[in-house]
């Protein structure tokens, strides 16, 4: 390539120009620098700039998170110009599977690792508990930049104020922020929130100088939160009725409600006193309800998986024997052997990565000949809020001669299934390394039929087998 820097400069012009004037000026500068002013193709592209250049769509929501890594395709690394149509379909399935694994690994990272806070701002603490890790990182970047920005009020009245915001050493490059403090609404001339759904450093700077300590609920988009996948297609009231089945989703939903509550309660001394009184009354009611949590269960629906497939089987009304007790009030501790969660209570099934196979051999201190063969399940419930999946695993024991088959049954709710999925995604991520061929899984199940009250089941899986289990478990989660 004659001019290796041309691509980078053109890319910056297209993707990092903040105003139409900046884009047009930068485009002309690049073409002049490389003597491309007479290039007919570039001229035709420029004439249609309002149909493709991002700067012309800043007022349209694209849910686009800015990135320094450029544009990547969903099919990067899977298809090329020589890919045939039959091969494309195979590669498409692999790309989807890889995308699912990355998504689960990202969910695992979000839920099991705490982001590092860089400021004493209440906004940072608030959003760290609400946003996914990737979105929080972008918000944190904008928040940190506010320390290098100044905001000066240049116009306005009691209702609407106009601020000029600029970086301390770039006063000639300023943005205009309009703030309606009564309605807690703000807009910036950079239009970053309208385009990406993340508040810009300019609005955050104005919030800081006007003593807005937390992000108004209007600017916390559900799509960026940890519980975004729950209750899809339902309105807010329906989401509450669905029960928010995981601890994380319940916590995040209560945080959002608390934000609205705080905004209304902080308006005056009178509303503050009323809010505090109501909180104390509510806490007493919660304590009473927490002591009387009931748990009825019944049966409906089933399915199975073998070699990666998902197959529905007829439902059965018979109660399947299980290693899982009939109870829902469970401590949220899972022994995942990865340091992200505590391992205090084993009154529920856990999936623990005990060992990873390196160079084709098992760890020296582990002898496991049992392999995963197939999995079936039955969904039991009386109401949507109390569904339970009865899982039946078939394991092939090659340690016996001849090889024997073992069946293991246990029950899972959505609350207990989610951490299991996260652990499986973590194991799958470890198996993506070339040296790791097999993972040894250790399930610890509560079993009232044994003297110790628990049973351990150990088996080994390959990456492909674990991928099939992940897809089936994800399907079961949707049924719950």
From TrEMBL:
Residues 296-323 are annotated as: Disordered. It is found in: Nucleus. One of its GO terms (molecular function) is zinc ion binding. It holds the Pfam family SWIM. Residues 175-211 form the SWIM-type domain. Keywords: Metal-binding, Nucleus, Zinc, Zinc-finger. The keyword 4Fe-4S does not apply. GO terms for cellular component: nucleus. One of its GO terms (biological process) is regulation of DNA-templated transcription. It comes from the Eukaryota. Its main location: nucleus. Residues 298-308 have a biased composition (Low complexity). Putative transcription activator involved in regulating light control of development. Belongs to the FHY3/FAR1 family. This is Protein FAR1-RELATED SEQUENCE. It comes from Solanum commersonii (Commerson's wild potato).
